[in-house]
Each structure stands twice: as structure tokens, then as C-alpha cells.
């Protein structure tokens, strides 16, 4: 899999990482949603045992190998200009037009 990012998306994802290390994980979150899942970008400290790295530049992207089949081989992630969300598309269709970032990293002690 591969995700194309435009300059605005690269900048916004960098702002979400906030200068701290982290992995960006595409994940269908099914907890408490009562549906097939809501697509989110999770920021995690490290991959789970079932996660695969599918892209390393400009950020490291992961997905759970059990969810890999839900995505296409080539996708585009685009930040919304005036809204704190993203759109994930591929040549075959739209995955989400309201994709949010959820930071799950441990808090920094200071």
C-alpha cells in the first residue's frame, strides 16, 4: 500500500505529531460505534504485534494486517483546508471524507 500526501497534509500530520516520535496507523475503530467501524488515523508510540508498516516517508504509516484488505494499494490522504479532518480516497472510491486523528501516545512527563 502507498499513500500520496500533498504539502498541506504533510504539514498538518506533522503538527499532530507535535515534534514527538510516533507512528500513523490507519484503523477502523469499532469500539462503541454500533457499526462496521469508523476510519481514524491513530498516532501510536509503537506498532502492535499484528501491525505492518506499509510506508516510511515522510511519516511511518501502519495498519493491522487483519484490516489491510480493507484498503487499496494506492490511496490519497488530503487535509481539509478549513476543517481539522482529512479525506482518504483511491482510484476506486472514497474511504472517508471526515477522517480524524486520534493521539494514543503516552503523555510526556514534564
From TrEMBL:
Chain ranges of the Core domain: 1-103
Ranges in a coiled coil: none
A Pfam family the protein falls into: Fe-S_biosyn
Gene3D superfamilies: HesB-like domain
InterPro entries: ATAP_core_dom (IPR000361), HesB-like_dom_sf (IPR035903)
Domain of life of the organism encoding this protein: Bacteria
This protein's name: Core domain-containing protein
The species this protein was found in: Paenibacillus graminis
Amino acid at each position: 500500500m502507498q499513500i500520496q500526501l500533498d504539502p498541506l497534509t504533510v504539514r498538518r500530520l506533522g503538527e499532530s505529531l507535535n515534534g514527538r516520535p510516533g507512528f500513523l496507523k490507519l484503523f477502523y475503530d469499532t469500539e462503541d460505534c454500533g457499526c462496521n467501524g469508523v476510519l481514524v488515523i491513530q498516532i501510536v508510540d509503537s506498532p502492535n504485534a499484528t501491525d505492518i508498516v506499509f510506508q516510511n516517508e515522510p511519516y511511518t504509516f501502519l495498519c493491522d494486517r487483519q484490516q489491510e484488505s480493507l484498503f487499496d494499494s494506492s490511496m490519497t490522504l488530503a487535509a481539509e483546508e478549513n476543517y481539522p479532518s482529512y479525506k482518504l480516497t483511491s482510484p476506486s472510491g472514497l474511504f472517508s471524507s471526515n477522517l480524524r486523528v486520534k493521539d494514543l501516545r503516552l503523555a510526556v512527563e514534564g
